Every structure is written in C-alpha cells, then in structure tokens.
Amino acid sequence: MAYGSTIKIPFGPQHPALKEPTNFLFEVDGEVVVDVKPRLGYNHRGVEKAFEYRTYVQNIYLAERICGICSDAHTTNYTQAIEELLDLDVPMRAKYIRVIIAELERIHSHALWVGMAAHEIGFDTLFMYIWRDRETVLDLFEMISGNRIHYAMNTIGGVRRDISEVMVTEIMKGLDFLEKRLEYYTEVVKTDKTISRRTSYIGVLKPEDAVDLCAVGPTLRASGIANDVRMDDPYAVYDEIPFTIVTHESCDVLGRVIVRCEEMLESGKIIRYALKNMPEGEIRVKAPTAVPQGEVVSRVEAPRGELIHYVKSNGTGKPHRYKVRSPTLANIPALCKMLLGGYVADIPIVLAGIDPCFSCMDRMVFVDVRTNEKKIWTMQQLRGKEIRN
Amino acid sequence: MNLLKWARTKSPWIIHFNTGGCNGCDIELVAALTPRFDLERFGILLKGSPRHADMLVVTGPITLQVKNRLVRIYDQMPEPKNVVAVGTCATSGAPFQECYNVQGGIDTVLPVDVYVAGCPPKPEAIIDAIVKLIQKKDGEGDEEGK
Amino acid sequence: MEITSLLNILIFPGIIFLLALAFFYEWVDRKTFARFQNRYGPLHTGIHGVLQPIADFFKLLAKEDITPSASDKLTFLLAPIFYFALPLATMFLVPISSQTSLIAFEGDLIFVIFAFTMMIITVFLAGWSSVNRFSTIGSMRAILQMIGYEIPMVLVMASPAMAAKSLSISRIVEWQSLHLWLVLLQPIGFAILLVCLLAELQVVPFDAPEAETEIVAGWKTEFSGRKLALFQLGRDLKLVLASALITSLYLGGAHSLLLIPPIIIFLAKTALTVVLLSFLRAAFARFRIDQVVSGIWKYLLPLATLQVILIQFGFGR
Amino acid sequence: MKKENEIVESLKGFLKENLIKVTIQRERRIFAHIKSDALRDSISYLVRKLDVKHLSTITAIDLDGEIELIYHLTYKGSTTISIRITLSKKDLKASTITDLIPGAVLYEREVHDLFGIEFEGHPDLSRLMLPEEWPEDVYPMRKEYGIEQLREMVSKKQS
User: Fold this and answer.
1) Which of A26, A58, A204, A260 is the most buried (most CB within 10 A)?
2) DSSP result, A283-341
3) pTM of this prediction?
C-alpha cells in the first residue's frame, strides 16, 4: 500500500457478503474505514413507471415482486391503499389472515437474516441450523398458499385463500417447534463469546443520530426508540391484538440481532392469538375495477421497518402515480454513519446489520451526513472529525 | 479422458450473481446450500471469486447498470464455464417487462446453458437444473436436456 | 541410496502415501464439518463421497490457468509450487511407519518450525504478487496473524523437546513410549499447540486472511486452474502435517502396540486429531485480525511461558 | 381526532395566508397544501415546535403543466402530515431541507434524478440510481416520456 494514502476497496456489485448487487466503494486507511460511497442503482428496474402502465389488478403481482423476502408486506400495503380509495370494508376474517401471513413472513425474514448475519461473521454452523428450522415456516407457507416465497395471498377486497381448521392445527404444531428452537438460538446469540466479540460495540448508532437520520424498524428499535407502525398507526387488526414492541438499548449490531430474535418470538404470540380469535365469515368482497379519483398514503411495518406506499388515482383503471419507499432506503444514511471509523473486517456485519434489501430499495445513493451541528459536512470534513475523536 | 470428464462433472463450483432481481431466487439458491437440500452432496461449492468457479448462476433481469459488470464477471471466469439462468426474470425478465431500466433475460448478454423456470424456482428445481447441466456436459444428457 | 529407502521415500511412507492421506483427510474434514452442521457433505463421488477431493483436484488441473497481466509472473508461478512442496518435505521428518522417521537428525524440530514460517511467507508472496486489492489485504493479514501465533507455537513445540532433552521428533516419540504421553504431562502445551495450528491452517476462528465474506477469497483470489489445485493440495498436506505433528509431539506418535503395526496407530491418532480440528472449525465464528493478534499475545503467550517454566521445575518431565 | 385538530390549528396559526388548503382525510392522515416559498419555515416550525423529526419520503407527481412535491412527515410515528407544494414546469426550483432533516438527502436526490427538480443548497446532487450511460436531462418518470421512447433513447445512447 502506498505510504500514508488510503486504498479504495470495491465491495460489490458481486461480493459474497452481499446477496444483492450493490456497490459500496470504501476508502480504507489500513484497516479503518474512512469514507463510504454507496453506488446503488444496480437493482433499479423502474418499477414505479411500470405501475402506471398496468391495471390495478395486474399491479398486485408487480407489487409482490418488488422484494422476495418481504413480498407480503408490499401486497398488504398495496391492497390496503386501493381498498381505502374504494372505501371497501374488508371482512374481519380476511384482516386476521393478513396479520397471520404478515407475522409468519416476519419470522421467516428475521430467521433468514440472523442466519445471514452469522454467515457474515463466519459462524456457518448457526447459519445452517437456523436456516434448517426456517424451512418449517416455508412449509407452512407452502401449505397455506402453495408457494414458498411469493404467496399471492392478498387481493383487492380481501384474501384469496382461507386457513381451514386442519391448517390451524398444523400452524400451531409448527409454531411450537419453532418457538422452542428460536428460544435456543436467542440464548446462543446472547451468550456465545465469539458472536459477542464480533458484534458488540460494532456499528454503533446513537439514539439521536437514529432519529435525525430517520432510521426505521429494528435498526431504530435497537437504539432504544420504541416506534413501530403496528402499534402507532395500526392497520388490519393490529389494534385488537395485544403485543409489545421489542427494543434494546445497546445501539450496536448485537442489539439488532437480539431485537430481531425477540421479535420472532413476539410474532409467534401474535399468530397464536390471531388463530384463536379469528372470526368465521367469508374472506373476500367483490371489488369494482374502476377506482374513483383520490390519493392515499398507506403504511405497513415490514420486517425491515416502516414501508410507505402512496397512490394517486385519476378515476381510470390505472393509477396516475404510485410511489414506494422501502425501509432499507431509510436506513442507508444511518448505515453510512455506522460504517465510518469501523474496521474493514466489520463492514459485512455492519452492512448486514440493517438487513439491507436492495431490491426493494434501490433508488438511492448517499454520500453526506450531518452530524449534530447545523453545518452540512462534506466527506473530507467528516473524515477529519471521525479520525480525531 | 473419462477421468477428466468424471472430475469435471463431480465437482462443479458455482458463483452466484444477482443482476437486480427481487432476491426471491437468491434466497432459494442459498436455501439449497442448507441442511435440508445440501448442494455439497453433489460436490457443488459456492465460491467467492470468479477465478475459482465453473458455473455462473445468475438471478434477476439485467438492469442496464449491471450489464457490463455481469459481462466482466463472466470474462474473469476460467474456461470450461457455463451459465445457469435461475428464475423467470433471468430467463426473460418477465415481471419487469415494461420497466425502462430492465433489459430482459440473461441470454441477451451471455450464452446460457440451462434455464430454470419458476418465480422463484424451488431449491429442488435449482439442484435438478445443475444436475441436468452436469449430465449435458457428460454427453449422456437425455433428449430434452438442451 | 539403497533401493528400499528409495522405495520408502517414493511409495510407502513417502510421497504417494502422503498424497493419498492428504486427500483422505480432506474428505474426513469436510464430512465431519458437514455432519456438525447437520448435513451430509460430499456424497455422490465414490462411496460416501470419498473421491470428492480427488475429483476437485483433477477438475482444477484441467481448468484454464489465468495469470493476471499486472501480476509479478515469477512469484505468481512459484508460490503454489512452494506452498505444495514445503509441507510434503516436512512430512518426511515425522515418524509414520516406525518410531524413527525417514530422515531423522538432531534438530529436525527446528526445521519443522522453519518450514511453518516459510509457508506463511509463501502465502504472503502469493497474495502480494497477484496485484489485487483483496489479495493485498489478505496477505497482510496472513503476516499479521503469523506474528501473533509464531512465538507461542515455538515455545509450545520446544517444551516436549525440553522434556525429552532432544530436538529430534523421533527421539521425542521414543521418549514418550517410555514415559507417559506428553498430553498428560503438559496439557497447556497441547491446548496452545492446537490453537496455533488452527491459526497456521487459516481455519475458521483464524481465517481472516481468506475470509470469504469480507475479502472475496483473500490471498487466493487471483489463482485459478493448476495453481489453485496446488494450493488446495498444499492445504490438505498442511492439515496432515499439523495432525501428524500433534500426534508425534503430544499423543505418543507412531509406536507398535501389542502387535498392531505403528502405521495403524499413527493413522488412528491423526484421524482423531483431524476430527478434533474440524470440530473446532465448526464451533467458532471468525475473529477479527486485531482480535486474533491481541488475543494470542494477551492469553497464549503467558500460558506458553508458564508451560516452559513448569518444565524447568520438573512438572512436565 | 383530537390530536389531528390540534396539529391543524397550530399549523393554521403559524402559516396563516401561506396555508392554501388543509384537510383531515381520516384518523392519523392530514394533507396540507402550502405555498412553495413557505416550505422551509413550515418544515422548521414542524421540526422545532411539534417535534416532527421523521420524514418518511418525498413524492413527486407530474400533473401536466406543473410538478407537485409532497413531503410525508410523521408526528410521533403515528399521524402522517403530508405537506404539498406545486412547482410550475418552467422553473423547477425548490429549496433543500437537508439541514433541517438530514435524512431527506436521499429523497431529494431521487426526485432530482427522476423528475429533474433542482434543490438549491443540496450538498451533492450527482447522479443517483440511473445507470451511467443514461442520457443527460432525460427524466424517466415524467409523463411526456413513454416506456418505448425511453428504451430506444437509451439504446441510441449506448450504440
């Protein structure tokens, strides 16, 4: 390495740590990261333009394929928005089924993430074990909806498939096994020496930075701030289901792992409650195709955080404008704040800390960050500040 | 010479590249590594560097941004190499047909050996595709294997 | 050079046998690592996948061998050859088929320590000559890690020599057959040697130099085809060397036991050591490079010196 | 609905004539249309007085003749306040709010890239997520470009 100067390490677009194509160019001084320039856009497909060229029913399938891991969050959000435009009242049973599927997806997404985080720090055994147990959730999905990943459960006016009695007992059995295993993994994560060596005090995000940089989801909750769309802005039947928001004060990657593990257990309780109190009744209501003029902002708590959809309809069969802002996009500024000053060896685990889903997010590039003063910091100023303190 | 053919079919090392898909296929490919499906039974290892790999497993439609990087990865791989297009996006860029930034399937850029249909294809389908590609390389591939 | 010793060198406890042993132990390692992760591991090549390492080796031999234009050609070519030759040569110093190895002279333990250091130098040259950012960082990490574990390893290799009052591995093995095994006399030494050899093999708790998720493939990123095949074989031979060393220095080495020939005893012990190394590989997450070096200097070094002091006071003898 | 009325009253009190129209669409949803030059001080009012620190996103809509910007802010995570300003297509200028809410730096970049709106004072308005070979000053989300037009524009630029 030339003397004194830093070398630039390309991270991606093809990199074993990243499952999706994104390119972070790190400027590294020795092993310390001094500068980060994410260059995204590899995943940008121009989905929002395609929304304007399809009818409302076709858009359900497009909304689902924005992201493979949180596909149900996107369709729930989409169908809710259109139902609000049509002001349809969706049967209670359909809302309960939506909550059950959303929480099952949260377990599957968090389990997937904890496995990937373990793989990032080289702990392949935990990755293999937790992904083996995650298969039970995918089996439940396959039983309910016929597909492991894109379940296509939601449609405008309700849900397309019902959860019969046999399925309820099956889900209960799956949940018992899962909860036993997840408690064990949470125990492992909390007590294992090597995991805590690699994740505690790494990628620290102070609470006021998290609020300033508009972080969302587990990244925010791991810095001790308890806001969750399911509790604050309840949709479907979340206002009738008692559950607690999981937070953690450690503000580092270990906190994010623990928050996600405990959220999985919380989701298990939600599903049990929903299965017990699911009312009888039909699961769909006929929806007219022409949507009246109007605009709606609909929010959902996706596994990675607050997901916002905004739709503006002009009375025809196709939306005038459809805006999707995914949770990973909101977490990227917080991510860049965490990465500065860390080690090269910590980049993958900090990057994985916010559970980036670049396929939902890919619209953004981020360079600058504002620290507590009012000034706008350029990268050079920030580099000086980061190294000194 | 059949020792070489035996060796080549018994240890295909793969490298995975996501060209902008919805990462449904990626998590199914990674699920194929885990205990329930376990690709390593066929000697298949997921390698990090293109220099070490024989097969390039591509998921997702090609976005304009990622096109030349995909070609560069393909060029970096040493000879006898193959390409497996996993998922309908990689085969034809189906769900993102009208998106302005999507160029369509992988075959618009690379010579593809095996297409795996499905959105996303199940891990068994991905393993079946790789095994069929191995048989095709063996020469005793059955008729419908292209 | 009589015919028999030529045959010994070439065939039995020599090159052919060692290569076969290397492939076999890679299979044992991959199989146990997979079983610990509750999956099968290689299954369809040969019975239970035994021939998988051989298949990998021959496939790599037949692949195109790319030399990056910007790389330093000579070192890029020589590094794999050295990486393969060093462990093979060092294996002749370890007694396999009888209590004395093929080449036994006073001070062959020092040659083994020298060979271990040379291997890491070859790793550094390999990474440095392939001018690629990831390889540079990988090779720097390899050297950093060597600085970390080198001294405790030397101390812990020297303590059996002090107990047996000789610097030849064969004589240490003989000494152990007369007294207790050194693992019982010097348990700390055995534990530290295990940890240092894990670091030498660049295996999971210490595989920062080729950390797959951080720096692609570390110092091996640019190598392909025949060179990669030699690196793979070199890695397997190092695994055999490490387990053979642990067996000879601490587990009593190759000695005949009520008419079972020493070769069988040696194979049994080394196979068990490989399973133990593979278990350690499955049980830990990867440490960061600075944690490795500071951890070894803070914990292993004092323990190693304690071990040497204990021997002086007569505990380890 | 008490909380929403409070917010609307305090907004009316502060903005007076700058506030063109404000509606409470339903529980926890407020839409306020304000004059475009009153943007900065209304955002700073919200951030300081009502402690609304979280900007969810900025949506831009191409209504033929003018482009509408909607800033979606959330009050304590629950009520979404959508501040709407309209910019005529002739001068697409808006002032940045990155110094008030640092998280907005991303969303302004996206709107600049897809709609071509200049945000004065923005630290770095370089290319966002469109590929390098995307032709300059072609803004894909504008209504005047169809998908086929965009396709052959890009292929023309690439060849």
Assistant:
1) A260
2) SB----SS--SEEEEEEEEETTEEEEEEEEE-SSSSEEEEEEE-HHHHHHHHHHHHHTT
3) 0.88
